[in-house]
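fyi for ur records
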Amino acid sequence: MAERLAAWVWVGAGALAGVAGIVNVVGFLGFQHQAITHLTGNTSLLGAALVSGDTRATMHLAGAIAAFVAGAMLSGLVIQDSTLQLGRRYGVVLTLESMLLLAAVPLFRHAQWLGPLCAAMACGLQNAMATTYSGAVVRTSHLSGMFTDLGIMLGHAIRGMPVARKRLGLSIVVIASFFAGGIVGAWLFSAARYAALYVPAALTGVAGVAYVLYRQQQRLRGLAS
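which gave:
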């Protein structure tokens, strides 16, 4: 289970949750005030929009949900497995996420509804990339599962039952990182508006390229040996 979580999983989960926190708060503060990663809320809003006959909102919300799913689908096509493991093509997915966030900036600036769609697709890519590791569910773009795990384990602790401490720690790391990303994102948005997205774009882009280079180096070493 999560008691065997490797160090790179802790670092990666925290960093990606921070990235998602920044992207999501920019969506909330942006021209449509729409969550990027919160599909539960967007699905509820979509139902309300359909009932009220708000065609514009219906199109925007349905598009955001479809874009997130499309991003997850693309991640599945590239990585081809839901279990986290070094050696898979995470660098490709992170680079694609970076490109989508870069594309979202000018679209947001011109109040184009394609801006939130690019951001949602980027988050779908990221969330599908980080799904499970050693039996622990790892979601980095939203917190419902992490808060649920946190509550379950606190309940177990109160009853005197064994608690998976590293799984508890992972939940806290993701929640804290997402929250910190929201704070940073709000500050960046107040200072630079949609250019705030350049920060998560740079983080994912650098990480993606670095990972690709690392994997190439590993392959070369394997051939040499």
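The mean pLDDT is 86. thats all i got for now
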